[in-house]
Design brief:
Elements: H1 2-7, H2 18-28, H3 33-36, H4 44-48, H5 58-68
Amino acid sequence: MNALRHVLHRPAAPPTPTLLLRLGALVLGSDPALALTGRRCVPGALTSTGFEFAFPDLDSALRDLLASGS
């Protein structure tokens, strides 16, 4: 969300209380861990074979998505 706010030139948002996230996850039938914990994924199998991403970072991917949607 921080990267999306940065690309959209929006101010930082106050953190959502954990209780509200858990309640929202219960209503949506989702796992609250999706919002409460971070994930860092590295495409080691792809990069070790020489694969190059068109957008190697989130900011450039978001900028492209937002530019193509307007």
